[in-house]
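Journal club side-thread
Mid-discussion, someone asked how the predicted structure for our own chain would compare to the paper's figures. Pasting it here so we can look after the session.
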Amino acid sequence: MSPTTHPKDLIDLAEKLLTKGPQKIEKTPRRVRVLFDKTWVLDTNAARHVWEHEYYPQYYIPSSALTGGRVEKTKAVDGDQAAFLGKLVTGNASTDRVLVFEKGALAGLTRLEFGAMDSWFEEDTPIYVHPKDPYKRIDILPSTRRIVVKVNGVVVAESTMNMFLFETGLRPRYYMPKTAGRAEYYNLNVNGHEIADAIWWYRYPTQESALVAGMACFYNEKVEVFIDGEKEEN
């Protein structure tokens, strides 16, 4: 975990973000979960990547996304009450390494200090020190979120043993186990309706994509994909 800092550092950070704004704010499609005091205090698909500086992002989460604990606002950072110092409380444990934003570019978001939590997870993979910069890598993360693929209302695939591939500037792709480098493409035929090149899989992927070897991926643009019951955009 990163070293614990004094509350003044949080006040300075909040004032900087309120006056100068963050470098950048972006939604992330990754499922983000947090353990604190052996309790899941957060499980959300609505986290934000927030660049407080130019080097890498932090996770900020909607204030309503906390499920296993509560955040108490303790002191206003500024006279306009745009941001507050806060405390995360769960069971017999608490931490004051929290910022709550009510106004400005970060309105409605809460910052839980990364190092003050027990563990952070992207999908089912633990992350350390800080979130990875999504603009500097390909990430392939195992996920137990339920994927259902439909064509004209007919279920053609379903899995909870998946690999989610996140690549800079591109939409996420969801790879599912397949018993069956170079991509091989397959047509999909459902009740006489054929969709050309609807599925692909890599027999010999490049090294950075090795984790999806032998797994199949459906084109989101050509079929209906549901993640934990929520329909993805085509």
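Post-session note: Residues 1-6 have pLDDT under 50 and may be disordered.
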